[in-house]
Amino acid sequence: MKRIFLSCAVVLLFIYACGPSLAERKRAADANHKLGLKYYSEGNIQLAYVEFQKAIAAYKDDRDSYYLLGLINSNMGKLDEAIDMYIKALKIDPNFSDAHTNLGVTYTTQKKWDKAIEEFKKALSNPQYPYPQSAHYNLGLVYLNKNEYEKALKEFETAIKIQPNFEPAYFQLGQIYDRMGKRREAIVNYFEAVKINPGLVAAPYYLGIAYYKEGNKKLAAEEFKKVIDRAPESDFANSAKNYLKILK
């Protein structure tokens, strides 16, 4: 019996020694990850999901596959699963600012404001983060939801300093100034958003309302007509039609 046991042990050791090396596992994970990226870019999310899972199975420290699984789960509305994936990516690389930012966005969706703020600040603590405007913008949205307007203004303005053509930040500045009763400042920022992206619907709608409240009927009508032309079936267009009736 002892001889049989030793023989089995030798076989087990042989099998273990012949298992894939770390380099081989990394190569397999890289191949799965690249295939997953291909499927993801083509919009084949289900196949991408499978490949990213295979990548992690091959190499458990595949940071980017965890991150992309987080994005996929988030887009599918599986927020808790997305959070779990982002946290796993961050355990591998605590300085992964994209993961901090998207984790913050997920917490924002769940209205967990303080957790979201913490993640955006962690993203910004990395001086090598290539997209700090994104974290500043999302941090501004959190402060806006918390009605902390001055803090929100600062974050949106910082985002614009980093990326001067950052149209969403101009729009949000318009929203804040509207809430603060600073109509002229709101008009300036809505106008800038529309200038950067002429295809917008919400910005010209709110710009039209601001002009209407200022008593400038001509400019208000022009903006409302843009809304109707761009999105005729939208709620914005229906409301714009009502304003045009009033302006006649």
Which CATH first-tier class of the largest domain would you pick?
Answer: Mainly Alpha
CATH H-level superfamily of the largest domain: Tetratricopeptide repeat domain
Number of E strands:
0
**Order of helical and strand elements:** HHHHHHHHHHHHHH
Low-confidence stretches: 1-17
- Number of contiguous helices: 14
> What is the CATH T-level topology of the largest domain?
Serine Threonine Protein Phosphatase 5, Tetratricopeptide repeat
Range of helix content: over 70%
Rough shape?
Answer: elongated
End-to-end Cα distance: 102 Å
Strand content: under 5%
Number of domains: 3
Q: What does the secondary structure layout of this molecule look like, with pairings?
A:
Elements: H1 2-17, H2 22-41, H3 45-58, H4 63-75, H5 79-92, H6 97-109, H7 113-124, H8 132-145, H9 149-162, H10 167-179, H11 183-196, H12 202-214, H13 217-230, H14 235-247
Helix pairs in contact: 2-3, 3-4, 4-5, 5-6, 6-7, 6-8, 7-8, 8-9, 9-10, 10-11, 11-12, 12-13, 12-14, 13-14
